[in-house]
Amino acid sequence: MEIILTSNVESLGKTGDIVTVKPGYARNYLFPKGLAKKATASIIDSIRKQVEQEELREAKVRANLEALATRLDKLTLKFTMKSGEDDKLFGSVTSAMIADAIVAKGYPIDKKEVEMPEPIRHVGNHFVIVKLGGGLEGRVKIKVAAEK
User: Fold this and answer.
1) In a structure prediction context, what are the per-residue pLDDT tens digits for the chain, which is 148 residues long?
2) Which of 30, 44, 46, 116 has its CA 20 to 30 A from that of 147?
3) CB neighbours (10 Å) of residue 139?
């Protein structure tokens, strides 16, 4: 029986693929779960259009994330904090503080996207990675100065 997949099925293929399966598998598993439909000309056309629209939407999202990553690469944030001897800070610059500063600059990110191995505890220049998803990331420069 020829069917067209409406969702990705690990053992069969991706959305929009036309595959041949046994009738019982299609009737008892794929059709009731909404994973596939019988391959007719009208259904094939409608699912192909849905797949194309989804690809266009994903391309737009990817382009927006790439643009955000390039803007974050150029971004420099400045923090002024109290410090003691050897330029060690009283406290630290955390991912939440960095995320709030980035949001204040107008870039929509979450503090969970800011990746730091440990909080910044010294005066100086540091770099922080912002994971945007889809394998994209931005690198933000952090300047920490001592309060006078």
Assistant:
1) 999 998 999 989 998 899 999 999 999 999 999 999 998 889 888 888 988 998 999 899 889 888 888 888 898 999 998 888 888 888 888 888 999 999 998 888 888 888 888 888 889 999 999 998 878 888 999 999 988 7
2) 116
3) 13
